[in-house]
Amino acid sequence: MPRIISRKVVFFFCIAGWAIVLSSGSFPTVVWAQKAEIVQGGRELFVQHCAACHGTNAQGTGPLTSHLLGHPANLTQLSERNGGTFPFWRVYRVIDGREAIAQHGPREMPAWGNWFQIPEDEGHGPGDWRDQVRGRLWQLLMYLESIQES
């Protein structure tokens, strides 16, 4: 007659297995490699869509600065201006157009068009435009968080 293993025993071995994986050092290496790739993708998006105003160093010194109504923000100081914590969701809302910034233009048409604006209509499936926009936003935010000065 086969022995039945209790749920507690299975749960214990699952937890023990994860503890071994996490303590081995291989799991964090994969995570950091993926984070570096995400940050690099965000940097590329920044250079393509934001550097003209904010500068390649993100300090508000882009070549179009003299043509703007106001001076672009120094994006390397966002955490410092927020008590040492990167204001992820506020920056997300500014970039996707939900929180207005005069220099970005009206919320219906931010300076970068719909590249970072989540469309109103509901789409479904893995190729959905909304998911693609969220992915770009996440990459850009991970990059901005990575360049914060202390």
UniProtKB/TrEMBL annotation:
Cross-referenced InterPro entries: Cyt_c-like_dom (IPR009056), Cyt_c-like_dom_sf (IPR036909)
Keywords, sorted A to Z: Heme, Iron, Metal-binding
SUPFAM superfamilies assigned to the protein according to its UniProt record, in alphabetical order: Cytochrome c
Coiled-coil ranges (or none): none
Ranges for domain Cytochrome c: 37-148
Entry annotated with the keyword Iron: yes
Identification of the protein by name: Cytochrome c
Originating species: Candidatus Nitronereus thalassa
Taxonomic lineage from the root: Bacteria, Pseudomonadati, Nitrospirota, Nitrospiria, Nitrospirales
